[in-house]
Design goal:
The complex is a heteropentamer, with four copies of chain A and one copy of chain B. Chain A is of the alpha/beta class. Chain A folds into three domains: 136 residues, P-loop containing nucleotide triphosphate hydrolases (Rossmann fold); 60 residues, Helicase, Ruva Protein, domain 3 (Orthogonal Bundle); 97 residues, Zinc Finger, Delta Prime, domain 3 (Up-down Bundle). Chain A contains 16 helices and five strands. In chain A, helix 10 crosses helix 11 and helix 12 packs antiparallel against helix 13. Chain B has a five-stranded parallel sheet, sandwiched between helices. A two-stranded parallel sheet of chain B has the order 6-7. The N terminus of chain B is likely disordered. The chains are: A alpha/beta, B alpha/beta.
């Protein structure tokens, strides 16, 4: 077994190697042949090959000089449009190297930008259109503002087909000399929800533990998510607020989870039929509703910890009604 | 120094220590610093720079001046009142002749208040300081209150770090007594004790308080220090919380805002920390947290809209809202310092490690740091715990340090094993 | 199939070709005959022919020289009133060419201007009244300040009739040699809500995929098929929360829909008289109420998945009351 | 009908012609007699004659030379205090022409200045007090900082009386040869809310369509007829949710109304003592609460249709409780 | 009545004239006698005499030469890090003129200085201590960085006593020949909240209207009389919603109040311990939260009237629960 992350090792290097996006690939290859591309907008579910396609396009356009001609940015990492502007400005100042007369700027998670920031981005795109092309990547194209959409050639990435994902996993397992069972592959498909990156990561983690069967897969998934969420909820429901809050802090500080991350996991835990919490159905609904309310408050508010603590306090109240009433 | 001038000098200057023996507290830190400085006599030590850090008024700047005097160095100083751009740093370094093999002996460069370097005005200064440290053949000393800002991380790696702590009140009382003696003032020891306690280890503010009170007096009694304005935050917080939680009317609860020295952020944290201690009844607790949650929403809206007109609502929910949640009689509880702040300080290093790991994953795997944390790191943890050999490969590929590996597996022994594989 | 935008290719060139706006057209033709027009204000829903009417007016007034005599501006594109002022100033300085003694300035989306900017516009209109006429185009005339309204002749454009839109689409499809099905045309009408431009754009986009049927239409507009949305709601109402949420995810992932997209479709489905869901009217009322709350939260930036899950959870509760109670 | 704005054409030229502000006028005439005025602060609702009074004062003080001695500025027009300072400086430098030893500077919308700008203004007022008097005009005097208030004589303008506004409108209509009906005048009063300028503008805009009746008035201000709004509300309250929603769409499309327009009208209808809806007061309370919530959501960018549906849904729920419970 | 600002005209010139800060004054006089001061930090609420004390100290220290030895920088002066490093440092370095061997640098509103600027200041305070002393003035001392706090002797200014403020106002009124009533003085105290500067400004502004009674005071500060606001609230709480709304409109029109003005006053009235309303304490919190929500909505651009109606409606609902339930 090789010892780098398999998602990278097996990331396609050529457009032709991309799975399940025939139409997208055909159009992109046309661009490569013409040595000219418009601005691009890649949309589709996570793990369907959007970033890979952007990179492959870059390899095929620029060949060995791709590093000199491609700038990769991630909208959720860059602090605001100012930084993006500055980096693009600096980058686009110099002339493209090689035969292709423009550089490529890949902007991942573009749908995470506010609409104000997108307006600014649109102006940036206009400004550097002579020397650079943008490839915007988004999960939800409807969150990209109209004026940007209309400036871009639009590519929709399809969800991957089960058989192709499994085929790919089997190929990787074989290359790496890993033993996988059918139910192991099924389980990976199940937990990865069509996301190829998650599927390969799961495969690798399971393989690290030995044979990849369904058990191993569920074990990996169980270990990969913090168990503190369920513990926190149980403590709060039992009325032990202080301990619950301590768990909350652990999750936020030690795991680096944001308030929204935590609420998502809380939601999952509450609604899961496999949850150890044994909450009656109507209380589940109440909790889900509460979680929705608190999440909204976090968006409006300033301090996630306070909002989540308020949530736990409400839980304690519900717990009392539930267990003592 | 003329008699007239020295008479006018504030006591903090007049009684600033001239010799090592005059320094108050921090004996072991001082020993460590002296040892480092002496090691220069035997050649260039491993760490060419010393970073002294600690709270204000414990004597960092003073110590450096005393050392220079005591060991016969010429001190070349730069502080926050100077422009400290890259070119200014370079100019000083050149003036001090840091690279010379012989002629420079006998100089120290002292960069005071390093954490006061301005991001905009002093552009490039920090990077240049690090360059200077790498080249220097003479001792460089830096001082800061808070060296834990992430931007100082590379600097911390270059420096020997020594912490200076707040001296105990009894040490400060001794110093105050010495000053009173010199000024011919008769002071009640209890009064000096009050001053010392109030200063919370800040020697300079203790001397300032003493001087302000002693102005025109020859005798100081406990009565005279009664009006000493409190800088003391901790005690103030306890009193503030007691007032808040025992309030029976909204206006009483709101009154703490004008009487507390805590700023609003801090007060919010204190209240948040202590709600569950004060309110044991789930109903009271939930109600109080509901108010706090509302207060936080107003704070959020203020930040987003920059509309400060909403501040009064935020403050009201945080005070009156919390206080009116009480249905039972007030009872005394021992209030806690906001644990989250301690926790954040304690976990600074851990959080930095996590961030750095995510940064490396992000750049190798073409994902955002957030995605690296949520989607990749959990799998890495499973791999690192279960398969040291594969872990070693990945660690090498991601260029992870030993602390990072230890952070991921959460186990020293397993980390060692992975490192062993890496060396193979 | 031609490459240019069909909305342009099939845009009427003569006032008489405009659909469904008889009264407006009659008044405009009167102006053409008199070779004199006042300032104009065209108001009405999007895609009812406002811009087209302005252009046709220009063709008929100026004939071949229309390009020299017409300035087209878009209030939400131009950066603020300063730019508009500058462009109008420069433009109106030169004399109109040809027999008509004034130029025409078409200002689209005028209701997007702030009222301050409109005040400034009013002064510009006064200043150049001798040499230029303005044709303001707006969706919401109530957002045009009164001093401007009182200077303009007012034209209200009516919503288009379904049969006329479909007839037009069928004509275009035939011209372009595109196969369309009846349910495809129905679907286009459904999603375009009386907006001709949107209808034609949808037709063209769907045609790019091949045969234009309902499936193709929903695919290109990035909407789930109403049937699938109904399925999700039915699952939730039957109390099958987990299945409903799985369906929700599938919709979000497969169609790349954001939360607001989904809730809009949910709303549409609830309200549709043709919905396959047989929900009693009083339950519809509750769902509409809920949808409003959830949509607001998401608009404020709350997390799509959490909020929609909370929505489904509530649905499950309502369903239980409904079917078991 | 003349081309210029009727608000200008029929603006009073003499203090005595100003309507409904007897006390203000009396004090101002005293100043004219004495040929000396302090700094002035005119406050009151829009369209009650503040600017008119300032101009009349100027005519009567300076007679034919008023143009040489009066500087009119609009605080929200001029770009910041710098411009004001520059213009005032230049203007106040030269000596007043004629018998009155000072010039008059009219500063409209002074309450729109930031308090920093007002501080600067205060210094300007001090500096030029020998050669110039300021007349500040504001809707909200509380937004004028105290140090300025303490330098000015304060004049409060009263809301106009219905009969006087209508009388004036009738006079203008007669002069312009416009046919107006009684219900047309009522409607103008209704929509202009005591603002004379708005009333006259509405008259002029409606006159452009022909006869001025209630229909024409509601059309030009982009409002539905109150009767139709009442109908929609009645339907919803009777529990006929889907019908109410159909009516809503009709209103939005036919009148080109935005969601906020609609909710404003709904609010007006609920509150109107003349409403045809016989809603008990305690229900009005609930509706008012609801209207506030819904209006806010739409202001924040939520979807008009979904939110108005939610509003009607709530109405139906209230109606159910009311009539069936 | 004189033209200049009374706050300046009646500002104390001697430490002994300062009101209510005996402890502070005693210590400052001691410094003057010794001709020596430490660095000073004056903290306390606005209008309690901090700036006045700093200036008096300067007069008494330097006598006629105070202008040569004092540098006053306030919030409107540039006090960024450059100014501190250049201008302040330069000033501090040069020798003082006269007998006192140091200069005094007064930094008003020092809590508004950036922390960069404060950092630059700290060492200057030490290095030039032989030639300069600093007096920092702050409303919120916690915004002064700790290293500076520790370099200063700390003086806390107490809120002023009602009787002393009123006495002072009466004295000024007498000097200026202004007629004031008892309720006028009470009203000034009420609106100025212990801030002497504001109290005197209000007196001067009200005096410009003639006799200073409660009416005049509330008029100039643009507030309704608390009694009237309380009346409106009482009506709403008693369930008399329409009457309350009538009162609301009356207040807005008569006093020229904006929606935000009104809600702020309502808020003040609700929370006032002296209010005639007798609202239970826990309900006060609820009402304040409501007021905050409504103010936020209006600030975000929602309609004043709709939102205030919604507020009164909520009040009526709460009142119903409270009094009938």
């Amino acid at each position: 077994m090789s010892e780098i992350l398999w998602t990278e090792k097996y990331r396609p290097r050529k457009l032709d190697e991309i799975i399940d996006q025939e139409e997208v690939v055909a159009r992109l290859k046309q661009f490569v042949r013409e040595r000219n591309i418009p601005h691009l907008l890649f949309a589709g579910p996570p793990g369907t090959g959007k970033t890979t396609a952007a990179l492959c396009l870059a390899y095929e356009l620029y060949g060995d000089r791709w590093r000199d001609n491609v700038l990769e940015l991630n909208a959720s990492d860059e602090r605001g449009i100012q930084t993006i502007r500055a980096r693009v400005k600096e980058y686009a100042r110099t002339v493209a190297l090689g035969e292709v007369p423009f550089k490529l700027i890949i902007l991942d998670e573009a749908d995470n930008m506010t609409s104000d920031a997108q307006q600014a981005l649109r102006r940036i795109m206009e400004l550097y259109t002579a020397t650079a092309r943008f490839c915007l990547i988004a999960n939800y194209p409807s969150k990209i503002i109209e004026p940007i959409q209309s400036r871009c050639a639009f590519f929709r990435f399809q969800p991957l087909k089960k058989e192709h994902v499994i085929e790919r996993l089997r190929y990787i397992a074989q290359q790496e000399g890993v033993e996988v069972t059918e139910d192991g592959l099924e389980a990976i498909w199940e937990v990865s929800e069509g996301d190829m990156r998650r599927a390969i990561n799961t495969l690798q983690a399971a393989a690290a533990l030995g044979r990849v069967d369904a058990d191993a897969v569920y074990r990996v998934v169980g270990r990969a998510k913090p168990k503190e969420v369920a513990e926190m909820l149980a403590l709060a429901l039992k009325g032990n607020f202080l301990e619950a809050r301590r768990k909350l802090r652990e999750l936020m500080i030690n795991y680096g989870l944001s308030g929204v991350d935590i609420i998502k996991q809380v939601h999952r835990e509450i609604m899961s039929p496999r949850s150890a919490l044994k909450i009656p159905e109507d209380v589940k609904v109440e909790l889900a509703d509460l979680a929705g309310e608190i999440e909204f408050r976090m968006v409006e508010g300033a301090d996630d910890e306070i909002q989540l603590s308020a949530f736990l306090a409400k839980l304690a109240l519900i717990g009392r009604r539930l267990y003592k009433g | 120094m003329s008699a007239r001038a020295s008479l006018r000098l504030p006591w903090v200057e007049k009684y600033r220590p001239r010799r090592l023996a005059d320094m108050v507290g921090n004996a072991s830190a001082i020993r460590e610093i002296v040892a480092w400085l002496k090691s220069w006599e035997k050649g260039i030590p491993e760490k060419r720079a010393l970073l002294i850090y600690g709270p204000p008024g414990v004597g960092k700047t003073t110590l450096v001046h005393v050392l220079a005097r005591e060991f016969g160095y010429e001190l070349i100083e730069m502080n926050a009142s100077d422009l400290r751009r890259a070119e200014d740093i370079r100019r000083i370094a050149r003036a001090a002749d840091i690279g010379s093999l012989f002629g420079s002996r006998g100089r120290i460069i002292f960069f005071d208040e390093v954490d006061g370097m301005s991001g905009t005005e002093d552009r490039g200064g920090l990077a240049e300081i690090m360059e200077v440290i790498k080249e220097t053949r003479i001792p460089i000393i830096l001082a800061a209150n808070d060296p834990w800002d992430p931007r100082f991380r590379p600097l911390r790696d270059l420096c020997k770090m020594v912490r200076m702590d707040r001296p105990r009140p009894s040490d400060i009382v001794k110093l105050l007594r010495r000053i009173c003696l010199a000024e011919g003032i008769k002071a009640d020891p209890a009064a000096l004790r009050v001053i010392a306690e109030n200063a919370e280890g800040d020697i300079r503010s203790a001397i300032n308080d003493l001087e302000a009170i002693a102005e025109g007096r020859k005798v100081i009694t406990v009565d005279d220090v009664r009006h000493l304005a409190k800088r003391n935050r901790q005690h103030d917080a306890f009193a503030t919380l007691k007032m808040l939680f025992s309030a029976r009317r909204c206006d009483q609860a709101k009154a703490i805002l004008s009487q507390s020295l805590l700023d609003y952020d801090m007060l919010l944290q204190w209240i948040h920390e202590n709600l569950p201690y004060q309110y044991k009844d789930p109903e009271e607790l939930a109600k109080a947290y509901e108010a706090l949650s509302k207060a936080d929403m107003y704070f959020g809206r203020i930040v987003k809209t920059q509309n400060w007109g909403l501040l009064s609502y935020a403050l009201e929910m945080m005070t009156a809202g919390v206080a009116m949640a009480r249905k039972r009689p007030y009872r005394f509880v021992k209030y806690q310092f906001p644990q989250r702040i301690l926790l954040m300080a304690k976990t600074k290093e851990v959080r930095r490690l996590r961030e750095e790991i995510c940064r490396r994953i992000a750049s190798k795997c073409h994902v955002s740091r957030k995605c690296a944390n949520a989607e990749v790191l959990p799998f890495l943890r499973v791999i690192f715990e279960g398969n040291p050999k594969m872990a070693a490969g990945i660690a090498k590929w991601l260029d992870l340090s030993e602390d990072m590996i230890r952070f991921i597996v959460g186990d020293r022994r397993k980390a060692k094993e992975i490192v062993k594989y890496m060396r193979k």
